[in-house]
Amino acid sequence: MFTGLSAFPLTPMNESGIDEEAFIRLIQRAADAKVDSISALGSTGSYAYLTREERKRAATFAVQHANGIPVMVGIGSLRTRDVLQFAEDAQEAGVSAVLLAPVSYQPLTEREVYSLYETVTRSLSIPLCVYDNPRVTHFTFRDELLGEIAQLPNIGSIKIPPVSSNHDEAKARVDQLRALIPSHVKIGISGDWSAAAGLNAGCDIWYSVLGGLYPEISLRITRAALTGSAEEALALSEQLEPLWELFRQHGGLRVIASAALRLGIGSNPNLPQPIQGLDEKARQQLDEVIQRLALQS
Amino acid sequence: MFTGLSAFPLTPMNESGIDEEAFIRLIQRAADAKVDSISALGSTGSYAYLTREERKRAATFAVQHANGIPVMVGIGSLRTRDVLQFAEDAQEAGVSAVLLAPVSYQPLTEREVYSLYETVTRSLSIPLCVYDNPRVTHFTFRDELLGEIAQLPNIGSIKIPPVSSNHDEAKARVDQLRALIPSHVKIGISGDWSAAAGLNAGCDIWYSVLGGLYPEISLRITRAALTGSAEEALALSEQLEPLWELFRQHGGLRVIASAALRLGIGSNPNLPQPIQGLDEKARQQLDEVIQRLALQS
Question: Which residues on chain B are in Cβ contact (under 8 Å) with A269?
């Protein structure tokens, strides 16, 4: 399942709980567009902000409405104890894979992060994607550690942070990691502005925030890159540069949450406080960008 | 209550829950030494890793066993919704103050952090200490933002990260913050190796990891600094340098957790997985340091 486009939908919510209707609409939207997989409860799905019950219900809805498309869910948490529980719940909900970041409060050591993956993979009967995102976890993986973790049973993929926009540098970075991991472990790119470059450099899958709301343009970029039309993928991505700039400036989550409201999916507020949507100025910029790009789906 | 030495005890725990007997022993130890306040459920108290019920019980035990010494507890969490709940529970448990860090998964904006403190202070009937610790929150306060937050009702103190070991630089840093906050808001120093320098530079209180296990030596440093014996405070702190080096290298939490076991308080493991205690080499170093310093209490 770790190939092509994996859509990371928002989990619209307010202080009372998840807006389940809006969440289901986002799952259906991705399923209708025939993305390759749906990663519910990623960072954009705000997994870290949800209770056990909320995660369980969201995972169940995602599987029910994905129309047979494989679903992955995030199971990250500060405590191994909770991660194991979330892993069990996710498997009961029928997901096809789980996504695990080394979420931290106290900075973690390499030994601690390895032991987390060792303990969790031992309990799993489905594949796990290692989620490398220092922006939210504040843990920076060395490639050697990723290599060791990738040898554990049930590791299916590694989700890496943005690569260089320089093709040779990006390719060297992906090749270096590839040399350290078993061939069945797939490499996925995140940081949407880096997706075309990452796929062109040999990544197998795009873990995509954009794909969670706008699956069609995301699929076009993915298909172009994975069928060898590297230039076309880059050109399509380049057109989205004004959107990528907003992503980098405000975080993909805030941008996509505002864009979902603009499409009439869910109601404002749709993020867990204290996180707020875009301010007025950024919202206007987003409006202009979306109109200019004629983004529909 | 925001003056002198505030002891931050460990919350010994394993995967089954809090070791309540060991926790109570640590509270009693601090109370017996007559520290000025006890900050249970700080970072060293692993608040971020506990459930609502666990936090509530720990706060209740801390108040019950503090022998009248004021107790502060940490109420930080990723969601404002949960912080408000923890604030209510803490007040019901009878604490005298709460400690709030802008805990983050998604990086927070200044607007979001301000709104968190605005919302929470509005709900409180006891003072709040603003917890500035980028190492664990990954949010860096500008002094101007601290100044704005300090104007909110019920703000009692600001807990700042380590200051320079150069006295003039440390004093300039404390003076700069002092100029931006109301006079009733007290400044507290954290990063134990920086405590003597911070108190000498004009901080009112030491928020102390060491004081949670070794209150007596911590009180001697505090009393020296706050009664004008700046050199004596520095000399006492300097003697502890081998311990501070372990703190900086492994984090105060791991060091103090190992030291507690060495004193026969609680049993191994005593930290929430995936966090582990010191490895064998560091544990030997700690043993040597403690013997050399003849640390008892």
Answer: none
